[in-house]
Specification:
alpha+beta, 6 helices, six-stranded mixed β-sheet, about 25% strand, five-stranded antiparallel β-sheet
Amino acid sequence: RDLHSFPTRRSSDLTLEENERSRKKEMALAAAVQASFLPESPPADRYFDIAFTSRPWTEVSGDFFDFFEENGSLKGLGLFDVSGHGVSSGLLTLVAKSTITRNFYLHREEKLGKVMEHINEGLIQEMGQTDNYVTGVLLRFDGDTVEYVNCASPDVIFRSGSSGKTGRVADRMGKTITSGFLGVAEMKTQFNALVIKLLPGDCLFMYTDCLIESRNPDGIPFQETDIMATLKKARGETAREILDQIINDFDQFIQDTPVRDDLTAILIKRK
């Protein structure tokens, strides 16, 4: 046969392959950079046993979290979610994480609600030219006492170590304290904080919204009540065992339905 009769690859095909290889390389690099800034394991603490799970939807996650320590003692933790997906959101997590960490330590003597105001100011300055915003929760610890601020994130779930009762963390009137988005100048607000005391065996569970927005094959979402039911029946002794039961129930519920968001969850158990 004439050599010219064999099919040849068009230059456009080669360009598409090269672009895809370049994209994958850039995503892998971004993922590696992001992973280097996130905790590899929970801190060891006198009062609390902690476990977390993180499942990015793509190579780079819009979720991020951090533990704040001082002199070997846990002083706080944050779980946040930058809106959007892909490299741009993933890179913004690095900016947001730095802003939150800096202000958490810089304003340690102020009330946590005021600390969050400083964080919001910093995020507005850093992210003001983007269309992204941040949601999340911030906790500060003083022994077995916890301060808690929520910024448009799912409510933190509580389980009593003595009775096994579960419910949202709320004030004495039963009201939760969810505030607005972070990083949006037009939505600047004050942030209210709750102070709670954890007794031995008490648990706090926090998570990004993927957990309650994912659906099973019938289109039914995994709901907050499902989380509470699993948390109530969980018999594990450690935070890791309890968290694994929640995530296992979630996986069994959604079955093979694709998850289309980043999933991060943290469980804290008072020793």
